[in-house]
Design brief:
Layout lengths: L13 H10 L1 H11 L7 H29 L9 H22 L4 H10 L1 H18 L3 H7 L2 H6 L2 H16 L4 H18 L2 H6 L2 H30 L4 H6 L10 H25 L8
Helix pairs in contact: 2-3, 3-4, 3-9, 3-10, 4-6, 5-6, 6-9, 9-10, 10-12, 10-14, 12-14
Length: 286
């Protein structure tokens, strides 16, 4: 039986072990805060929100692993993609489980709330999708499904979109965090839209320029989503929110942070490629 911190040959991998341990940290922190009454007047509700947020964060991290692995020539990073995705499903299960606790284990009420409240319905759909992906992430399922396995696991993309919509509705008036998460998700989807075969044929400057363009695109779409949300669902002046993206006098807006993160990826990518070119070739052995 394989264990998460070993490879297929049974060798211990410190990196996988470290990532596995780090995935328990958010849950352990919330357990500690619950036990020490550090979460305010509604500790269970705070933990519900926290576990849901970490489910979404880990889903985004799992989607970001492929771009980072390819951009930085780090195939070992792909070894932790599965466990990060499974962890996202586990935090989503905890998210629902704590909601059941908050409803005093009244399962009839929980089911009716999920059926009647749209944001809970789509949240439950996202949870089912994550469980399906986690359950079929094993090597046996990969062999059994063959080419269909990749097709099935591309459902992570619409699941991410549904989870973000759930987050928007739950956040209500202040959607800064959902907008930021949406911008990162859009960047990840835009990166995947560029054919990998074409990207491999291009030089470093061209790839960096494309990635910089994607950073601008993701930031602009994030700003547009923020405007659309405030204009359609709140009484807040959406134009003032949009104008706030034109300067940073009062701090960075979510769209700005999306650009900073995506542009940071480009800078690190360039630094990595340039440093790799400067490494002198080893002399041939006579």
């Amino acid at each position: 039986m394989s264990v998460p911190w070993r490879d297929r040959r049974g060798r211990f991998l410190p990196f996988k072990a470290a990532v596995l341990a780090s995935l328990f940290v958010p849950g352990a922190l919330y357990a500690f805060w619950l036990s020490t009454d550090a979460l305010g007047g509604r500790p269970v509700m705070e933990t519900i929100h926290g576990t849901g947020l970490w489910a979404l964060r880990l889903l985004l991290i799992s989607l970001a692993i492929t771009p980072f692995a390819r951009a930085f020539d780090w195939p070992g990073l792909l070894l932790v993609r599965r466990m990060v995705g499974v962890a996202a499903a586990c935090y989503a299960v905890a998210h629902l489980g704590l909601y059941v606790v908050d409803q005093n284990f009244n399962l009839i009420k929980v089911v009716s709330e999920i059926a009647l409240r749209f944001y809970l319905t789509i949240g439950f759909v996202a949870l089912l999708g994550l469980l399906a992906l986690a359950g079929t992430s094993t090597n046996n399922w990969m062999k059994a499904l063959g080419r269909n396995w990749k097709r099935l696991h591309r459902l992570a993309y619409p699941i991410g979109a549904v989870a973000l919509l759930h987050y928007y509705i739950q956040a209500k008036a202040n959607v800064s965090e959902p907008v930021f998460a949406s911008g990162l998700f859009i960047w990840l989807m835009a990166w995947r839209a560029v054919p990998d075969a074409w990207r491999r044929r291009q030089g470093t400057a061209t790839v960096a320029a494309i990635n910089a363009g994607l950073a601008v695109l993701a930031a602009l779409v994030a700003a547009g989503l923020e405007f659309a949300w405030y204009a359609s669902t709140t009484h807040i002046n959406a134009w003032r929110v949009l104008y706030a993206n034109e300067n940073i006098a009062h701090g960075l807006r979510p769209a700005h942070w999306v650009f900073v993160c995506a542009a940071g990826f480009v800078i690190v990518f360039l630094a990595h490629r340039l440093s790799r070119k400067r490494v002198p070739a080893r002399p041939a052995i006579a």
